[in-house]
Specification:
The chain has 257 residues and is α/β, with parallel strands linked by helices. A seven-stranded parallel sheet has the order 3-2-1-4-5-6-7, with helices on both faces. α4 runs parallel beside α5. It has nine helices and seven strands; from the N terminus they run βαβαβαβαβαβααααβ. The longest helix has 29 residues, at 101-129. The chain has two domains: 7-185 and 223-251, NAD(P)-binding Rossmann-like Domain (Rossmann fold, 3-Layer(aba) Sandwich), CATH 3.40.50; 186-219. 45% of the residues are buried. β4, α4 and β5 form a beta-alpha-beta unit. The structure holds nicotinamide-adenine-dinucleotide. Residues 12-18, 35-37, 64-66, 87-90, 110-111, 137, 139, 182, 184-185, 187-190 line the site of nicotinamide-adenine-dinucleotide.
Length: 257
């Protein structure tokens, strides 16, 4: 299938799942806008690499997804937004009675509120274009909980709820809204949790990955960023035109348990 002529904005896409989704959307023909809160040469180089590889237009736009006005400004500066992928996300792990308030606020702002602002800004563009796709990167933690991840689980359940609402508000239009719910994907966000877990459990890396990180992922394998990209491309296809307001788990069986 070809997404030629479509513009995709992927929040939090200079790394991990967002970058993987941007690459696959560009390989399917979409022009892509990469984003994060930094403005380094390497951020812009990522966009150049995607352009060189796929022949599509790829740009990097700096915008901090913890700030509502910058979220809306990202969409305005993109100039078009046929496909919106709300992917930016951060994590912090602590018991709720010790959860730092600034971490709570940042997780709710980046993982949840940003999607409200970008969606509000992008829907009028989709309506004008007569076609649109909202793809929210939620998590298995949008459907189930784990201890010590109160803010993350709250934000991810929230974005699943927002996905359903957007789907109902656009149900009679050629616009869909869905959430991808990954299990564990080996990205910097997960990589950063491994050393602490090794210390806490007194285990080596391989044992921590298998026994702790992937404990709830029955396949005992990480999902990949390419697989997330493939699902995003599918959600943009004609075959998925009647799939709206739902979640697609890519979690090696986690939510079947
Ligand atoms: P990552 O750390 O590689 O990517 C996070 C991205 O968000 C980065 O590009 C980062 O720059 C960006 N970001 C962070 N704060 C930002 C801000 N204030 N403004 C703009 N961008 C910001 O992690 P990832 O694993 O690729 O995570 C991407 C998404 O996937 C997140 O929403 C995460 O919750 C979700 N997810 C990840 C996993 C996993 O196992 N890796 C599982 C389920 C869901």
């Amino acid at each position: 299938m070809s997404l030629k002529g479509k513009t995709a904005v992927i929040t939090g896409s200079n790394s991990g799942i967002g970058l993987g989704i941007a690459r696959e959307l560009a390989r399917a023909g979409a022009d892509v806008v990469l984003n994060s809160f930094t403005d380094r040469d390497e951020d812009h180089r990522l966009a150049e690499e995607i352009s060189d590889e796929t022949g599509t237009r790829a740009r990097y736009i700096k915008a901090d997804m913890s700030k509502g006005d910058e979220c809306r400004d990202l969409i305005a500066r993109a100039g078009a937004c046929d496909i919106l992928v709300n992917n930016a996300g951060v994590q912090h792990v602590a018991p709720i009675d010790q959860f730092p308030q600034d971490k709570w606020d940042a997780i709710i702002a980046i993982n949840l509120n940003s999607a409200f602002h970008t969606t509000a800004a992008a829907l009028p563009m989709m309506r004008k274009a007569g076609w649109g796709r909202v793809v929210n990167v939620a998590s298995a933690h949008g459907l189930t909980a784990s201890p010590y991840k109160a803010a993350y689980v709250t934000a991810k359940h929230g974005i699943v709820g927002m996905t359903k609402t957007v789907a109902l508000e656009t149900a009679e239009e050629p616009i869909t809204a869905n959430a991808i719910c990954p299990g564990y994907v080996l990205t910097p966000l997960v990589e950063a949790q491994i050393p602490d877990q090794m210390k806490t459990h007194g285990m080596d890396r391989d044992t921590v990955v298998r026994e702790v990180i992937l404990a709830r992922q029955p396949s005992k394998q990480f999902a990949t960023v390419e697989q997330m990209g493939g699902v995003a491309v599918f959600l943009c296809s004609e075959a998925a035109a009647q799939i709206t307001g739902t979640t697609i788990s890519v979690d090696g069986g986690w939510t079947a348990l």
